[in-house]
Every structure is written in structure tokens, then in C-alpha cells.
Design a protein that fits this description.
Elements (H helix, E strand, L loop, with lengths): L16 H10 L3 H14 L12 H12 L1
Helix pairs in contact: 1-2, 1-3
């Protein structure tokens, strides 16, 4: 599970991954894109079965990545 220094999970309300991804592409910020990809990678671990390719949230992030 990916956490910040406070050792608690990143919540959707804390970080807007879609907006971060779009801004990363617009401003050519590779660090933002890598961060979003790392969060998605950690979210698809074995114990988190909710985050699969058919999940609408993950699907929208994958569409943004595909367009970029």
C-alpha cells in the first residue's frame, strides 16, 4: 500500500489523480505521470481486488494515459 509519511493510505479526496495526470501531460512533468502510474501499480496488488481494468476510475486513468 502506498502511503505518505504519516503512514496512512492515500485517499481519493487527498490527491486528484486525473487532474495530476492531465497537468503532467500538459506541463510535460514526467514526475507527476510516474507518480500516478506508481499509485495505479500499488492499487492493483493482490489484496486490492477492487482496482481492476473494468473499474470506471481506473478505466478513465488508462484512457488519459493512452491519449498522452
Amino acid at each position: 500500500m502506498l502511503t505518505f509519511a504519516s503512514n496512512r493510505p492515500i485517499m481519493r479526496c487527498d490527491v486528484d489523480l486525473k487532474q495530476l495526470l492531465v497537468e503532467g501531460f500538459l506541463k510535460k512533468n514526467k514526475l507527476a505521470i510516474i507518480f500516478v502510474c506508481r499509485v495505479m501499480k500499488e492499487a492493483t496488488k493482490d489484496h486490492l481486488k477492487v482496482f481492476h481494468k473494468k473499474n470506471p476510475f481506473i478505466k478513465s486513468l488508462l484512457e488519459i494515459l493512452k491519449e498522452g
